[in-house]
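Tutorial handout. Part one gives the primary structure; part two gives the three-dimensional structure as tokens.
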Amino acid sequence: MLPCILFIAILSLASTAHSHLVMALPSTWGLDTSLENPLTQRTSNWVCGGRQRPANGPVTTIQAGQVLHVPVTCGEAIHNLGGAAYQCATDSDGTNDYHGGGGCALSIAYTSSPRVEDFVVFSVNHDCPRAWSTWIPFNVPINLPAGEATMAWTWIPPSTHAQPEMYFNCATVRVQGPSAQLTGGRRLLDHIYGVPGFSSRTPSPIYRNVLPNGALQISTSAGGGGQCQSGHARCTSDPSRWEHCASSTWYSHPVPANMRCVQEGSLISWAQRW
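Part two.
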């Protein structure tokens, strides 16, 4: 009888160690199959899944006020996004990969070497992850400040479908939005679970139960000279970008490829890059 009980226990443990899910943006740090592994109390280096920002790696563009579609898929399908929904739902684990959903969050930190304390949650999708779907839509706040940053994707599965665990991937992003500074919002630090220093409680604090759905409220301070007159445009200290004013706020944009911004009085134009 004992061997049978032991065999069942081993099968139970194995069920929590099969394929899982990952944010599969091209700019995801350390994107490979192993990144899907869940983070638990035994994970020593868990911020960004233990990955670091690659030098000269890809960058994902985020537009403030728009919808960002993020691929969330099983590890074996990270290079097959077109067929990922079918591949993940029909592999040996089937829809078990999705652990009953629970909701996913996107957070941002305006640094290339972030600590968990640096991240502010800016968008949540309660219907994430979901079987037979790869691209998850996230609404982006209209006041998300412009600049290069680190974006985190986090997910805590329901305790009815998984052991105490969470998922935490990072990606390099560039926000096109108002020229401002992020000063406040919901901290990711308050929504970490099941890793060293953070409790594993029942039920797990899944995001669809503890965070609003959609773009979250964030606070910013005026940047780039503060308020402005709608319709005005200007070059910035970065010649590869320009700004226009709308609703008393400066919004940042890239200039066309291989060009630079030139300003004469109140007029701006493009010139060949040096």
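Part three, for discussion. The CA atoms of residues 102 and 157 lie 5 Å apart. Residues 233-272 form one domain.
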